[in-house]
Design goal:
The chain has 432 residues and is mainly alpha-helical. The chain is built from 17 helices and six strands. Bound molecules: s-citryldethia Coenzyme A.
Length: 432
């Protein structure tokens, strides 16, 4: 069967280009040799029409609102007891773990949950109001100072060791930054607790009084982390791949991913959503005001938690979080519904009826409802994006490894179209 070709016609040139088709019908024209062979570039500033890799990890169909991890629909992870560590294993090891493999992975995480005491002491020198994402990025990068033997990975065993250190310690780092911000004593991880329960323990226990872990909160946290675990080549994952393509170590690559995720157009949106909902609740704004401002091109206000580069339908994660909220609230025996949930529902209802949003296919994304659940768990708003990072970390690690294992993978080095000043001469200072 002859290989499928596309023809590029430019002037009197006709250039044949290979065509690549994905498992689910994605089709791409391979232009990887276009510049080398024809000195022609393609132009796609935000890479919206550009595939930078072939990946087996996650599949999204934005038109139909489909998200699958290693082929498994996201909805199938929403079980009675969702298990984030099982999903992390699936993403990183390319298969669901057997019970033995899951227990071994849990033990590996348990053995790597402590921070080196010198790293822990560094929190004491951080100003109390320091942004948690700044601390997280710094501390992930700092892990490279304490695991120098794992900066260059010679085999899959060493890779798994680094993956376990990152996935386990990110919780300890996040909880430490929270405790520091509250002037509370540091709580050591408890090896007898499961992943999410241990994080909640480190966040909320006080000396000699263990935090009462509600199974509903533990399940809700597992669910939230699962829904954030990977999402193809989003901004932060593309950052991790770019840094990793230079053969930078996994600690540095994930630290860079944290920095990209911090942006309010990306993972930082979950904080903006909460501020927006609180603004409405505290009376400063009405849902109608938000819709009006979001449509006003003169106004920089955006309806945070709405819209997506890929989903032009309801983000399946937002749907799961919206539907989970009521269940979690009742399981938490919350005396009253969180009024912010009703405000969010009102905003969604207004937007989904408004031609401005309908025409632009702007639907709620993962950030629109996640904060309401995190708030129900007493996670502070300024840590919402940190929670996103804890969830996304296994995805970053899996994507970094996939790039690392790609034969002949090259350093990411986009080109440009130069539109600046043509050749000119230096003007000596006395003549300017
Ligand atoms: C995440 O990529 C991923 O997968 C990301 C993520 C992941 O899991 O990694 O899913 C996580 O980052 C979710 C997105 C979180 N961000 C927000 O909620 C911020 C608010 N949303 C927008 O800023 C925006 O929708 C983006 C950034 C998410 C997507 O931007 P696009 O696709 O580039 O859309 P655009 O900027 O080209 O906008 C198209 C039109 C514009 O209007 P016109 O110029 O056509 O008149 O839609 C408008 C935009 O002004 N628009 C919005 C809007 N989002 C887009 N108008 C008001 N409010 C919004 N939220």
């Amino acid at each position: 069967m002859t290989a499928e070709k596309a023809i590029l016609t430019l002037g009197d040139k006709k250039i044949e280009l290979p065509v690549i088709r994905g498992t689910e019908g994605d089709v791409a024209v391979d232009v990887s040799r276009l510049y080398e062979e024809h000195r022609i570039l393609t132009y796609d500033p935000s890479l919206g029409s550009t595939a930078v890799c072939q990946s087996k990890i996650t599949f999204i169909n934005g038109e139909e609102g489909i998200l699958r991890y290693r082929g498994i629909p996201i909805e199938q992870f929403v079980t009675k007891t969702p298990n984030f560590i099982e999903v992390a294993y699936l993403l990183i090891k390319e298969k669901l773990p057997t019970m033995t493999e899951l227990l071994e992975f849990r033990t590996l995480l348990e053995n790597n949950e402590l921070l080196h005491e010198n790293l822990r002491y560094q929190f004491r020198n951080i100003p109390a109001g320091a942004p948690p994402m700044a601390q997280l990025s710094a501390m992930l990068s700092n892990l490279a100072c304490f695991h120098r033997d794992l900066l260059v990975l010679d085999n899959d065993e060493e890779f798994l060791q680094v993956a376990a250190r990152l996935i386990s310690k990110i919780r300890t780092i996040a909880a430490s930054s929270y405790r520091r911000s509250k002037g509370l004593p540091y709580i050591y991880p408890d090896p007898n607790l499961r992943y999410c329960a241990n994080f909640l323990h480190m966040m909320f226990s006080i000396p000699y009084k263990q935090y009462e872990i509600s199974p509903a909160v533990e399940d809700a946290l597992n669910l939230i982390l699962i829904l954030h675990a990977d999402h193809e080549q989003n901004c932060s994952t593309a950052t991790v791949r770019t840094v990793g393509s230079a053969r930078a170590n996994l600690f540095a690559s994930c630290a860079a991913g944290v920095s990209a995720l911090w942006g309010p157009l990306h993972g930082g949106a979950n904080v903006e959503v909460m501020e927006m909902l609180k603004g409405i609740h505290d009376g400063g704004l009405s849902p109608e005001d938000c819709i009006r401002m979001a449509k006003d091109k003169q106004n920089p206000f955006r309806l945070f938690g709405f819209g997506h580069r890929i989903y032009k339908n309801y983000d399946p994660r937002a749907k799961i979080l919206r539907d989970a909220s009521d269940k979690v609230f009742s399981q938490l025996k919350m005396k009253e519904r969180d009024p912010l949930l009703d405000i969010a529902r009102k905003l969604e209802e207004l937007a989904l009826k408004d031609p401005y949003f309908v025409e632009r296919k702007l639907y709620p994304n993962v950030d629109f409802y996640s904060g309401i659940l995190l708030r129900a768990m007493h996670i502070p708003t300024n840590m919402f994006t940190v929670m996103f990072a804890i969830g996304r970390l296994p995805g970053w690690i899996a994507q970094w490894k996939e790039l690392h294992d790609t034969p002949n993978s090259k350093i990411m080095r986009p080109r440009q179209i130069y539109v600046g000043t043509p050749k000119t001469d230096y003007i000596p200072r006395e003549k300017r």
